Amino acid sequence: MFSAIPSIFLVGPMGAGKSTVGRRLAETLRRDFLDSDGLIEQRAGASIPLIFEMEGEAGFRAREKAIIAELTQRPTLVLATGGGAVLDPDNRRCLAGRGFVIYLCASVDEQLRRTRGDDNRPLLRTADPRSRLAQLFAQRDPLYREIADLIVASDGQTLRAIIQQILDRLGSDATP
Fold first, then answer.
1. At 80, phi and psi to the nearest 5?
2. What span, in angstroms and rounded, lies between the C-alpha atoms of 71 and 89?
3. Measured distance CA(136)–CA(132) in Å, rounded
4. Contacts of 136 by beta carbon, 8 Å cutoff, 6+ apart
5. Residue pLDDT tens, the chain, 176 long
6. What are the two backbone dihedrals, phi and then psi, of residue 173, each rounded to the nearest 5 degrees?
7. Residues 6+ apart with CB under 8 A from 146
8. pTM of the model
9. Which terminus in the chain has less CB density within 10 A, N or C?
10. CB-based contact 101:149 (threshold 8 Å)
11. Which residue blocks in the chain are alpha helix, DSSP H?
């Protein structure tokens, strides 16, 4: 039933649940799952904070752009992207043009709760993480919405409920 659905790309802010939802969705659909940030770390042999420290955000974004261009060409993949992947117009074109894009939306309060204590978030290394998250949300939310085929709010929902919402939509999209 879901074989007619192309690759699935999860976008959204940090802490929205892209990796968790992506893993479970891939398992359910019997597809490969990849996390673009994880693959960047693996190929660089360094953590994202270290990449930011050594190369700056621009260096990280260049690596991210190459990964997105490569991975979006793979069929039947479930891909969780980094929160800032949508900043690059080429990334948005690749994501929107090569698969089904799901925007996992989470409130700033929920993002803060889920990312608190996570040292792997260089953009939150600030005295006021809440303000930083609000700023990122204001900048990126329109870009997520621009390319989304489906928007799912992850606040207050179980993983099972989120997956079911996605499967319901994918099922209707797969119907001839």
1. -95, 125
2. 16
3. 6
4. 13, 14, 83, 84, 123
5. 455 678 999 999 988 889 999 999 999 999 999 999 999 999 999 998 899 889 998 999 999 999 999 999 999 999 999 999 999 999 999 999 999 999 999 988 887 776 676 555 555 566 677 788 889 899 999 999 999 999 999 888 899 999 999 999 988 654 33
6. -75, -25
7. 86, 92, 96
8. 0.88
9. C
10. yes
11. 18-29, 36-44, 48-71, 89-98, 108-115, 129-147, 159-174
> Which residue type does 13 have?
P
What single letter denotes the amino acid at residue 113?
A: R
Q: Which two tokens stand for residue 126?
A: 């600030």
Tallying the residues shown for the chain, one arrives at 176
Residue type, 31: R
Gap between the Cα atoms of 50 and 71, Å rounded: 23
Q: Is 5 helix (H, G, I), strand (E, B) or coil?
A: coil
Report residue 165 CA to chain centroid gap.
17
